[in-house]
Amino acid sequence: MHEQTDVLVVGGGPAGATASALLARQGLQVRVLERERFPRYHIGESLLPSLLPVLDVLGAREAVEAHGFVRKTGAFYGWGGQEWSLGFDEPGRPAGYSFQVIRSQFDQLLLEHARAQGADVREEVRAGQVTFEDGNAGQGQRAVEAAWTGSDGTKTVSYVVRRTRRL
């Protein structure tokens, strides 16, 4: 069985969810393959203020704000007897605050946002072989076909965005 999509994104974490949401919002047919079922455990995350303009472009900042993650206005570092502090409200910073997030919740929020933008998100699906135009993976070679488990057959795609260390 063949399925067609404009863009196949391998990995539904923050990078994959962000790419998927932005591409789907542009009218492309986007399919996301995520190996695990969200929410899934992932080590915690301290976000920096530079992420807030990205969330604005993505259209997800309001959802992140409403979720109730802990707001932070700076950072403190201590190492080997030395200490440093950083205030996010200093001039030139993109925002005066950021968030300490629970990664499982943050990642799910972004993946659900991608779904809401029109991405076809498939969880508990493992990406398999990717075939390139001339049969060889190389610089400038376009992926033309990919297979994954969780559904029957080989799926035909126009582009593959790989944002995972394991394929």
Commentary on this structure:
The chain is α/β, with parallel strands linked by helices. It is 25% helix and 36% strand. It is built from 4 helices and 11 strands, in the order βαββααββββαββββ. It has helices at 14-25, 51-58, 61-67, 103-116; strands spanning 4-10, 30-34, 45-46, 70-72, 74-79, 82-87, 98-101, 120-123, 126-132, 143-149, 154-162. It has a 6-stranded mixed β-sheet, covered by helices on one side. It has a 3-stranded antiparallel β-sheet with strand order 3-7-4. A two-stranded antiparallel sheet has the order 5-6. A hairpin with a 2-residue loop joins strand 5 (74-79) and strand 6. Helix 1 (14-25) packs parallel to helix 4. The radius of gyration is 19 Å and the shape is elongated. The model has no long low-confidence stretch (mean pLDDT 87).
Summarize the structure.
The protein has 167 residues and is α/β, with parallel strands linked by helices. The protein is built from four helices and eleven strands; from the N terminus they run βαββααββββαββββ. Helix 1 (14-25) runs parallel beside helix 4 (103-116).
Radius of gyration, rounded?
19 Å
The best one-word shape is elongated
Strand element count = 11
Major β-sheet, in short? 6 strands, mixed
Structural class: alpha/beta
Q: How many DSSP helices?
A: 4
Strand content: 35-45%
Whole-Å distance between the termini? 21 Å
Low-confidence stretches: none
Average pLDDT, all residues: 87
Characterize the quaternary organization of these chains: single chain
**Helical residue percent band:** 10-25%
Order of helices and strands: EHEEHHEEEEHEEEE
> Widest sheet: strand order?
8-2-1-11-10-9
